[in-house]
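User: Hey, quick favor. My workstation is busy. Could you predict this chain's structure for me?
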Amino acid sequence: MSVEKTNLGNLNVVSIKEATEKNKTEPVFSKGLYQWVMFVISLYTRVRENLKIDFESFIILQVVVSHSLYEVNKLGIKTFSELEDEMVDILHKKQNKTTKLTFASISEVLQLPRETVRRKVLELCKKDILIFESQTGIKLSKGYKKIYGSFVSQTTNDLSSLINKWDKSGALKLLLEMKNK
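Assistant: No problem, here it is.
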């Protein structure tokens, strides 16, 4: 038998430490993934039960919230309570037509049919969550403050809990160290 067939070479040998570390990350990942999935399920359930809207409408609302936050942040970064007090008011005072949000822009972002977006936005308007005016576009209504005060606060607490669980299990460290491969 040749020496080459019995020689493993340095590249194929895995140290005990490397093997142990490799085995540690898989359970950490699965536990962290489970906690993430439970967070998403809880969010979905709270959207249906508390907001009484379907998840697609919720995602459309998130596009409007995202646009609103983008506009608010142009005026300076805000704390949680400053946003609660000012987000809707600031957006209604600022009448910048170049930044208006339309059915078409939401449709493009979410890759949804424009008619679906229009119908769901109008339903959210009936629930006093959004306002639509052809001249100023789609905005958060005064009724959004109720959602912000309770729903956003609960979601923030749930996210904090998730991150703390990830930190304790080591999943957060694993996520922070991940690189695109």
